[in-house]
Write a structure and sequence with these properties.
This protein is mainly β and about 210 residues long. It has four helices and 14 strands. Helix 2 links the parallel strand 9 and strand 10. It is globular and about 45 Å long.
Length: about 210
């Protein structure tokens, strides 16, 4: 049964037989707690300091994935999908990798620091998703409006907002409230971690809000 734990910002830990860590930060550089996890697989969407602190979460046999394409890593099917960190094809902030992967028959999609509404080609590659991690804080990524437009294009069963202002975070981005204010689905405050099985996925879309 996969367990999802939030370490703040865009850093999540998805653990079943293996531990996958997304976009690790070191904590102190952005004003929040350091992630206390070691990843078997570490996914890095782009090379900015608040997303690429591999040394914080790596161990001896960690495998780091940073690029586009399909690969099997330690038995996990992972697809990196090229996108951009801004709305001008990377001219401001460069490229971003969206990661899609499957754990215990649940399909996860982590949008990294996506800065634009995905086009049809990207949406085709993303395909069907059960749990979507989506940035909502604006400034460097999608804001509340464009995050909702993106979420409605991807149509996941569960939407998990990320990359928004929380207590201590030193980045000048919005909190989660503008995103939630536009919501028409059930909102569940799940705390810091939750266990989920495929058969427990909701039939109606839900928003899961994590906290530290």
């Amino acid at each position: 049964m996969p367990q999802i734990i939030w370490h703040g910002h865009a850093c999540f830990e998805i653990t079943d037989d293996l531990t996958i860590v997304t976009d690790p930060h070191d904590g102190k550089s952005i004003g929040i707690e350091t992630p206390m996890v070691k990843g078997d697989i570490i996914l890095v969407s782009h090379d900015h300091y608040d997303h690429n602190s591999v040394r914080t979460v790596e161990k001896k046999d960690s495998v780091v994935v940073r690029d586009a394409g399909k690969k099997n890593v330690k038995g996990v099917e992972i697809e990196g999908i090229e996108s951009f960190h801004d709305e001008v094809k990377g001219a401001k902030r460069g490229k971003n990798i969206i990661f899609k992967f499957k754990v215990d028959d649940i399909t996860f999609c982590h949008l990294g620091d996506l800065g634009h509404i995905p086009d049809e080609e990207i949406l085709d590659k993303i395909g069907e998703v059960d749990i979507l991690f989506i940035p909502v804080g604006g400034v460097y990524t999608l804001d509340a409006d464009s995050a909702w437009e993106t979420a409605n294009l991807i149509k996941s069963r569960i939407i998990v907002p990320m990359h928004y202002k929380i207590q201590g975070l030193s980045l000048p981005i919005s909190d989660v409230d503008p995103f939630l204010a536009k919501n028409k689905f059930k909102v569940i405050h799940v705390g810091n971690q939750i266990d989920i099985e495929k058969e427990d996925l909701p039939s109606e879309r839900e928003i899961w809000v994590f906290s530290l």
